[in-house]
Fold this protein.
Amino acid sequence: MKQDLTKLSRFLSLILRHSPQTIGITIENKGAWTDVDELIKNINRYGKFKIDMKILEEIVETDNKQRYSFNEDKTKIHANQGHSINVDMGFPEKIPPEILYHGTAERFVKSILTKGLKKMSRQYVHLSKDIQTASKVGTRHGKLHIFKIFSGKMNHKGYKFYCSDNGVWLTEYVPPNFIE
Ligand code: HQG
């Protein structure tokens, strides 16, 4: 029986971004890398999924958001972004486009307009380069609301921006006056 790779990919997200202790592995602080052999061994030992190198390679290649990547010799793997555990991804600072978008749920709108966009449980606030991507992100939370973010103006004022390898824009905090 072919197992559901989407479910396995979600489980990988949980392990590589939020909770490596679930299967008893460790994640390096620098780059958030983890050992591939150990990951495979421990996922299998955990018992919920069956995985080998071929399946892991398939997930890395086909994941719809390109969430994961290997190092050069494929001995290590990491999630490209989205961590809640404290890791140093070493993202270089990058000049953002003038406008970025943030998709969220309507029920958060009032709070966001008062307090600004906060990173909540993650390491950064996540911003999207287009409305379509922001719609997908926001719909996960409920009735969609999309904010326009004046990222260019923020950057001019000294706010730093980063872009993950899979194209997600990241920043520490967005104050209300840069949100529309
Ligand atoms: C909201 C997915 C009230 C914020 C996506 C969001 C993304 C506030 C929620 C990535 C707030 C946090 C991240 C405030 C922020 N008051 N609510 N002051 N400030 N919020 O999941 O951006 O599929 O941590 O609007 O594609 O939704 O996991 O962040 O609704 O790239 O790969 O608090 O996760 O990628 O939710 O999504 P999240 P997000 P993956």
About this structure: The first strand starts at residue 34 and ends at 35. The beta strands are 34-35, 68-70, 76-79, 100-105, 125-127, 144-149, 162-163, 169-171. The pocket of HQG is lined by residues 13, 65, 67, 82, 104-105, 108, 111-112, 115, 117-118, 120-122, 126, 137, 141, 168 (CB under 6 Å). The CA atoms of residues 81 and 164 lie 6 Å apart.
